[in-house]
Amino acid sequence: MAGGAYVDSGKAKEFDGKVTAFVLVTCFVAAMGGLLFGYDLGITGGVTSMEPFLVKFFPGVYKQMKDESGHESEYCKFDNELLTLFTSSLYLAALIASFFASTTTRMLGRKTSMFAGGLFFLVGALLNGFAVNIEMLIIGRLLLGFGVGYCNQSVPVYLSEMAPAKIRGALNMCFQMMITIGILVANLINYWTSKLDNGWRISLGVGAVPAVLLCVGSLFLGDTPNSLIERGQKEQARTMLQKIRGIENVDEEFHDLIDASEASKKVEHPWKNITKPVYKPQMVFCSLIPFFQQLTGINVIMFYAPVLFKTLGFGDDAALMSAVISGGVNVLATFVSIFSVDKFGRRLLFLEGGVQMLISQIAVGTMIALKFGVSGEGSFTKGEANLLLFFICAYVAAFAWSWGPLGWLVPSEICSLEVRSAGQALNVAVNMLFTFAIAQIFLSMLCHLKFGLFFFFAGFVVIMTIFVALFLPETKGVPIEEMNSVWRSHWFWSKIVPAADNNDNRKNTIEN
Ligand code: BGC
Description:
23 helices, Growth Hormone, Chain: A, mainly alpha, binds beta-D-glucopyranose
């Protein structure tokens, strides 16, 4: 069977403990990192369509947009490399930062990385808000990218390690929920500031507020027991475990963490380690999950919803409003995931989400093809426009309860301690690489593929859904340091990952 649940194999360990208020507050602060990421994802599209911003920093682009005669077709109205480079440079910076973040997270702790991320965000937002020249704008943008790299590397790991296994999915998904809230807040702020003179300064500068919260918050956050043990602070780790589980006797879980840490210490180089045969599944999932997540095409909607709606003939206000509606659906649908992921499992959400995305993408592509054809000339009636918006929302909702949150949850929970930082860095790097690629080429893809763009992403959704059905084991309820055993009960991975004695294949790993 493709996804034999680990719990069914009879080996799952349950550790004692409650869900304490302390762990919830801690996770809330950590998830601020998600808010900042979401804010950056959502704010740029709106800012780059504000005229005063374009006139100040990209006068050439402004001229091109005003010059109606210069486009091959309606689909190409907004195609401009320089402007997309401004949007996408942040993700390149994040990609580079994630590798440094991996070392910081491992050697100095999860909270140090989160603090560093908050600081980068703070300086970046201030530089952007007060920018008087393009240099300030670009440097600010790069610093924001470093912030994303540091936070996305450390926050999901922090959340997964703090959480008791039975609600790990839900707690980890607070990261995604904050991302979606960040995107929605950014859209609303843009909706307001686009009507003000130089409103772009507010849009770009407001990011400083959650950045301060993250910086101050992470100074007071405790580090995870796993990280404390990893850095030799065993007593503090035990105290922290007692605090987050709300019980005195945490011996069993504590010893499991110590074992995990002892094993991971024998590993000299986590990067070399993750390429070993025994870590094949982690390597495969940490690269393919973020790749597929971006190839769902979600960021076409997130970055360019107003542009897309405008291209399809919606008026200025209607276009922004529609972006706000799909942003709201994104937030609400994430709750579905939070409440169901630890009950129904990861696989069910992935599979349902895949089918729903596919149907919606085909519907959107077909509607645009029928109305706009290849020339891009045409328009929707009000009823048709609403139907289109409905399908886009159905697509966003499906992503929001499947690939969105699971794209961050699964890679952070399948890696055992010895490869966790490396695995997560790989996940962030691949995610950022393809976020960059899609941001960079979307406008020219729309210009060339036209409505075919939606079928292009639909094709990838088919591939990723089959991939999950065949290869992803269920990880619901499996304690994080026990995760190595899920591969051995899987029809495919059991042939790849060497069998291990007793309950731990780490010994075998290290000797490999
Ligand atoms: C993805 C982002 C995306 C967002 C949308 C995240 O999980 O990594 O690229 O924009 O979800 O909610």
